[in-house]
Amino acid sequence: MEKTNSSRRDFIKKSLIGAAAFSIVPRHVLGGKGYLAPSDHLTKGVIGVGSMGRGHFKYAGTKTVAICDVDTSHLELAQKALGGGVKEYHDFRDLIQDPSVDIVHIATPPHWHGIMAVEAARAGKDIWCEKPMTRTIGEGKKVMEAVAQHGNIFRLNTWFRFDAKFYGMNVPVKKIKKLVDTGLLGWPLKVTISKHTGFDWKFYWVGKENLPVEQVPKELDYDMWLGPAPFKPYSRHRTHTTFRGYWDYDGGGLGDMGQHYLDPVQYFLGKDNESPIKIEVDAPQQHFDAVGTWRKITYTYADGCQIILDGEGSEVGKAYIEGPKGKLYRGFVSDIPDLERKLAQYPDPEPQMTDFVEAVRTRQKFALNEINGYYSCTLVNLGLAALRLNRTLHYDSAKQEFVNDEAANRLINQPMRGPWTI
């Protein structure tokens, strides 16, 4: 009996030591959604560990336990950044199915976002996705449907609607939202997004025509990098840091910065469940492969509100927001007398859930989620559709499709290269 008790004590002692040594336990082991490990950390797997993916390894309250990339040089750099010992995957589907992963962080080029987000949702993972949410409107709808069906927590990684000073306005978006809600500017409103109001459209993200065919680097699985995109011969400029210049993977400066700039506008205009009904474009004819520049894109809503994207900087001296009762300029300067005193008399906007770990813990929707993120990404994709077709488009906001325009509607659900589907 004494020998048995001694053995039992030794077993318990060793078990406690082992438990203390391994304090990061995936939420799934502890009972599924809403349960956190004793360390109060959630486990995370990052797909795409180039410079963007590596920059998000150490988000507070999370522990990176798995990484995935189709470029072995990226994996080597990621392991060094993490101190080694992290699980590596070549195929994102293997990372998604890893039971030790709670959160799937998608940091790939946008042509992969939709497929990966849907697969992660089906696997019961919570999702952190880089912007733009998806490369097409149709893929965004699929992500919304998958998250709704499986009950995941989804975060889109552009934070300006709830955090940080908003580019040239030099104040948080909450203050702009408060001003708009007071009605002091009147209605409808016109918002101009231009270098003169503090927003850079990054027109260095343009593609090159007649790219040279080059040897695929030995460290890169180019076929897997392309995935659902049409096959094009390898050229270095088509991949990694310059992929944004090609329609197959992104949409130039608008694809890169559009959701950063437009999501807060959608929020303070109260358009989180609505799309514009007309999209006008002033631009050179675009190349079929390489993204070019544009002069102006104008969105008009059913109530008369407008968003103007000034690409060439022609809107000199324009207000950031213009209404029938007043204007708001760069730096939160207004022609409304005594604005700060007047604003102080009004309530602040409703609080938002801005802590992703807390959202996962309590199963509350994150401030920028799959629904409002879909609508702000749709703003980007509507502009890109008008740009590619180089003409005015009319859009049915309720049906989320173009009006009597077969060519434009084909851009909503674009074909994928087999065997990939969503």
UniProtKB/TrEMBL annotation:
It comes from the Bacteria. Residues 45-156 form the Gfo/Idh/MocA-like oxidoreductase N-terminal domain. Keywords: Oxidoreductase. InterPro entries: Gfo/Idh/MocA-like_OxRdtase_N, Gfo/Idh/MocA_oxidrdct_glycsds, Gfo/Idh/MocA_OxRdtase_bact_C, NAD(P)-bd_dom_sf. Residues 169-422 form the Gfo/Idh/MocA-like oxidoreductase bacterial type C-terminal domain. This is Gfo/Idh/MocA family oxidoreductase. Gene3D superfamilies: Dihydrodipicolinate Reductase, domain 2 (3.30.360.10), NAD(P)-binding Rossmann-like Domain (3.40.50.720).
